[in-house]
């Protein structure tokens, strides 16, 4: 059974969406969570989370949490929400248009459950422009935070490479790569590779 949770404010649209998804996705359990109770999503076992960006709360903490857990994350937005481009930089599984109909939503969720990604056509041009901007402009890297070699290691780490891959690409030993990673985690004040990668991507210190 695949557990899907919708994080949004109560509304007739949300109620209808849950009803339609429950009827058509027989192998899925569909639940809806109010933004005031989103803390429960940090505790429950959820395979897919659909986050409504139109709510007043900022949900980057929840989105980052599910990314780190290798879960599927979908956001719902209109074309003007400022959070949309930040979410695009996180390479989520789905970007839904706020007013997409239930048929489109069902098809999109089915694609995502099959391991594909989905971007609604009305959001694609907005996201493409933002993607070009993200790729062509790195954020300012803090001076004296990491060495030149450590920045290279962090960039490869953020792309998902293990220590052996990093060593091979930078022509250093696996042990040296491991030592660099340890130093990076200590300097960034994070406890694991995933947190280091998320921090570097969020601050646009690396291009992925």
Describe it.
This protein has 208 residues and is of the alpha/beta class. It has 2 domains: 2-136, Response regulator (Rossmann fold); 148-202, Winged helix-like DNA-binding domain superfamily/Winged helix DNA-binding domain (Arc Repressor Mutant, subunit A), CATH 1.10.10.10. Helices cover 48% and strands 14% of the residues. The protein has 9 helices and 6 strands, in the order βαββαβαβαβααααα. It has helices spanning 12-24, 60-68, 83-88, 102-113, 121-136, 148-158, 163-170, 174-188, 193-202; strands spanning 2-7, 28-33, 48-52, 72-77, 94-97, 118-119. Helix 6 packs across helix 8 and helix 7 (163-170) packs across helix 8. The protein is elongated, with a radius of gyration of 19 Å. The two termini are 33 Å apart.
How many helices? The count is 9
Distance between the termini: 33 Å
Residues in helices, as a percent range: 40-55%
The CATH homologous superfamily of the largest domain: Response regulator
Strand content: 5-15%
Per the principal axes of the C-alpha atoms, what is the gross shape?
A: elongated
Q: What fold name stands as the CATH topology of the largest domain?
A: Rossmann fold
Q: Can you tell me the CATH architecture of the largest domain?
A: 3-Layer(aba) Sandwich
Report strand order across the widest sheet.
2-1-3-4-5-6
């Amino acid at each position: 059974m695949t557990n899907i949770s919708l994080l949004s404010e109560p509304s007739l649209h949300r109620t209808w969406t849950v009803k339609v998804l429950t009827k058509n996705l027989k192998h899925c359990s569909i639940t809806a969570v109010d933004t005031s109770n989103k803390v429960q999503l940090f505790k429950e076992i959820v395979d897919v989370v659909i986050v409504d960006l139109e709510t007043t709360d900022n949900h980057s903490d929840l989105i980052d949490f599910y990314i780190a857990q290798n879960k599927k994350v979908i956001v719902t937005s209109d074309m003007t929400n400022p959070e949309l481009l930040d979410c695009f930089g996180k390479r989520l599984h789905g970007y839904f248009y706020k007013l997409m109909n239930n048929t489109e939503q069902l098809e999109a969720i089915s694609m995502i459950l099959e391991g594909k990604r989905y971007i609604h056509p009305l959001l694609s041009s907005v996201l493409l422009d933002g993607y070009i901007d993200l790729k062509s402009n790195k954020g300012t890297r803090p001076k004296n935070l990491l060495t030149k070699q450590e920045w290279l290691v962090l960039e490869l780490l953020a792309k998902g490479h293990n220590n052996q891959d990093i060593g091979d690409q930078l022509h250093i030993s696996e042990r040296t790569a491991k030592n660099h990673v340890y130093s990076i985690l200590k300097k960034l004040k994070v406890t694991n590779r995933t947190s280091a990668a998320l921090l570097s991507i969020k601050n646009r210190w690396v291009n992925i």
